[in-house]
């Protein structure tokens, strides 16, 4: 089962490549969000501590891996344009106010995450989901025309994660989550945290 996580990366790499090819006007945004969220892979060891520690083929130290970086990179880019790709939406996203808002929420959210998990000891996956939703709410308060976009992006990303697990990963490695994830509740064979994370990730990045 050592190639399981890399197998999941292959799924998201394929989706990312398809969206990148089909949506030329969204490529800069995809690359930007992929880069920003790819950087967040360095906090994966915190998640590994209390929730998720999959096998690594390409480890970087004890708790981080190339697989983590790839997953954050590809999933971040997909979440940022998943709504646009399905609904063929185009709108102005690059005004200075939105850029500064994104930078502010990104930095403050990361700081709040590190404090809440490392200092206060709260579960990383729950803290991450709550903060992503809070940061997404800040964005839609400033750009109220993006409320539907953010909500639908959240639900679509959650559905995509479900498909990637049930239609790909768990067909090949059916015991993946039972072996490598710590969860008190499984919904259709998937930890409930994955549904929360999928929605929160899409809501913020979308």
Report what the structure shows.
The protein has 206 residues and is mainly alpha-helical. It is built from 9 helices and 4 strands. Strands 1-2 form a two-stranded antiparallel ribbon. β3 (186-187) and β4 (190-191) form a beta hairpin. It is globular, with a radius of gyration of 16 Å. The mean pLDDT is 89.
Name some characteristics of this structure.
two-stranded antiparallel ribbon, two-stranded antiparallel sheet, 4% strand, 206 residues, 72% helix, 9 helices, mainly alpha
Write down the oligomeric state. single chain
Which class of secondary structure composition applies to the elements?
Answer: mainly alpha
Shape: globular
Q: Indicate the mean pLDDT.
A: 89
Main beta-sheet annotation: 2 strands, antiparallel
Order of helices and strands: HHHEEHHHHHEEH
Q: Please report the distance between the alpha carbons of the first and last residues.
A: 32 Å
How many beta-strand segments?
4
Helix content: over 70%
Approximate strand percentage: under 5%
Main sheet strand line-up: 1-2
Quick synopsis:
By secondary structure, the chain is mainly alpha-helical. Helices cover 72% and strands 4% of the residues. β1 and β2 form a beta hairpin.
Any chance you could write out the topology, listing elements then pairs?
Layout: H1 4-22, H2 27-39, H3 44-50, E1 59-60, E2 64-65, H4 66-87, H5 96-119, H6 124-142, H7 147-172, H8 176-180, E3 186-187, E4 190-191, H9 192-205
Antiparallel strand pairs: 1-2, 3-4
């Amino acid at each position: 089962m050592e190639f399981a996580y890399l197998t999941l990366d292959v799924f998201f790499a394929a989706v990312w490549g398809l969206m990148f090819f089909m949506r030329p006007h969204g490529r800069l945004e995809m690359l930007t969000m992929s880069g920003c969220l790819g950087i967040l892979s360095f906090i994966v060891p915190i998640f590994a501590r209390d929730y998720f520690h999959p096998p690594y083929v390409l480890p970087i130290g004890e708790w981080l891996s190339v697989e983590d970086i790839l997953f954050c990179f590809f999933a971040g880019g997909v979440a940022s344009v998943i709504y646009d790709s399905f609904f063929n939406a185009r709108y102005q996203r690059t005004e200075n106010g939105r850029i500064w808002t994104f930078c502010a929420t990104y930095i403050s959210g990361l700081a709040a995450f590190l404090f809440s998990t490392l200092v206060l000891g709260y579960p990383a996956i729950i803290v991450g989901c709550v903060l992503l939703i809070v940061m997404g709410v800040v964005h839609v308060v400033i750009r109220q025309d993006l409320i539907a976009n953010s909500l639908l992006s959240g639900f679509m990303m959650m559905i995509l994660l479900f498909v990637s697990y049930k239609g790909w990963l768990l067909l090949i490695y059916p015991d993946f989550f039972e072996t490598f994830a710590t969860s008190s509740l499984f919904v259709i064979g998937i930890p409930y945290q994955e549904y929360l994370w999928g929605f929160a990730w899409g809501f913020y990045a979308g």
